Amino acid sequence: MYEIKKNYKDNEQLRQSFNELAKKTFSLDFEDWYQNGFWKENYNPYSIVHENQVIANVSVNITDIIWDGVKKHFIQLGTVMTDEAYRNQGLIRRLMEEIDKDYGQKADGIYLFAGADVLEFYPKFDFKKAAEYQYSKQVDNQREKTMKQILMNEKSAWDKLEKAINKSIVHGSFDMVGNSELNMFYVTKFMQENVYYDEMLDVYVIAEIEENSIFIHNVFADKEVDLDAVIEAFGKEIKKVTLGFVPRNKESYSAEEIKEEDTTLFVKGDAFKGFDEARVMFQTLAHA
What is the pLDDT of residues 133-144, one digit of tens each? Predict the structure, then answer.
């Protein structure tokens, strides 16, 4: 007998089974995220369970967005997977219908990022393709570098950063709020060497530097910080900046549509009317 299970992160048997399927499917393990206290209530797997084993899953991730000063209640679907032995039985459809029943009337919009092999699947659930735009510009920094790298390889550093994220004000025009745990998923796993802090500006920055280019995923500070000052704090070597979020002041940036071969954004809900024309993007650290 197949059952739908949700809100089970504290059930060790189901959580471990979920992790095993995630490792088999995506080479991802959520256990350390849970054990370190960062898997909280915003991430909720909806799973089909057979004989106490997770055999299919679609996870709901609550990602509220401040869009030009207005909060939108979005949910993002992710970690979509089915065990090979149980495929072609309509299990994901069953989960999608359950999620729509729970959130269809509560969320302002639902979105997901799909791989190239499932582009025909999500329109069956009224999802539509949407365009995202990324912002970048050339810079001529004159200051010496003051940004210091902060290694994120221990719990005390993670907790300090999480507090800063939770206290941070919104610095972009399309920013995720109230979901520090998703940021911490990235920081504690893949981006332990990508966190910086500037004492004078009192700002944390998650960024990747390659030669004279910098990709800034996001900035976190409890007061308004000039983004140009943040960029300058990375020093004279930086000649180009690309943002993983939408800046408030777009005038000095070039916007280019994001086109990735194996990632397509799908959206549904009234809140997404005008999304393409707004030329925005979901933060890179808001991808579940």
Answer: 999 999 999 989
